[in-house]
Design brief:
By secondary structure, this protein is of the alpha+beta class. The chain has a two-stranded antiparallel sheet with strand order 1-2. The protein starts with a strand and ends in an 18-residue tail after the last strand.
């Protein structure tokens, strides 16, 4: 449940002037001093750590947006997208073998997710009374999720399938024993950009 936070400020440590006090109705009924001004900070709504963790799994920087670190969350999403592009290119340049680039990327991804979740845990402990920011809205979360992570990621994958690599399955035993029926074949789309096919190389004709 959201609630409001107000900070009252007094001029000095205490007020002793008679003008700052409400006239008492009798002996011993003196009222406390009134504050000179009140600052409204906004609505307070506690953050749920499990929700921030789920949002982080959907998009690495979305958990930071949930905890009010909007710009940093966008930077984290951009870093993961850049690393995904590097993975696609490195895997293509190594001709899909060995699988080391993919394994390194997968381990690094899991490690970074673990560090982000640990950092969010620290934010959760430090900000028990979290004041809502303008970016704390479900529409903002959806916009960040779609526009800064899933759409760029899908565009990267689609571009890689169209220009870098492709996968297909052998439909018959015409190339047996090199390729048997049902085998998964990884195709390098950039292999013959700068040279013609050589003898003994497998070529896919679409």
């Amino acid at each position: 449940m959201a609630r409001s936070v107000m900070h009252a400020a007094w001029e000095g440590d205490h007020l002793n002037s008679e003008e700052s006090r409400v006239p008492s109705e009798g002996p011993g009924d003196e009222q406390p001093p009134w504050p000179e001004w009140v600052e409204y900070r906004g609505e307070v709504k506690a953050r749920r750590y499990w929700l921030g963790a789920v949002m982080t799994l959907l998009a690495p920087g979305l958990g930071y947006v949930y905890y009010g670190r909007f710009v940093f969350g966008l930077l984290v999403n951009g870093l993961f997208l850049l690393s995904s592009s590097v993975l696609v290119l490195s895997w293509a340049f190594t001709k899909f073998f060995p699988p080391a680039p993919f394994l390194v990327y997968a381990v690094s991804w899991l490690l970074m997710l673990g560090l982000i979740l640990f950092d969010l845990r620290g934010l959760h402990r430090r900000e028990r009374e979290y004041v809502l920011r303008p970016g704390n809205h479900v529409l903002v979360y959806l916009l960040v999720l779609v526009a800064t992570f899933w759409v760029p990621l899908s565009m990267t994958v689609n571009w890689s399938f169209a220009h870098v690599w492709q996968r297909t399955w052998a439909g018959n035993d015409a190339m047996f024993p090199t390729v048997a029926q049902g085998d998964l074949v990884m195709i390098d789309r950039s292999a013959y950009l700068h040279r013609p096919p050589q003898r003994s190389e497998l070529v896919l004709v679409e």
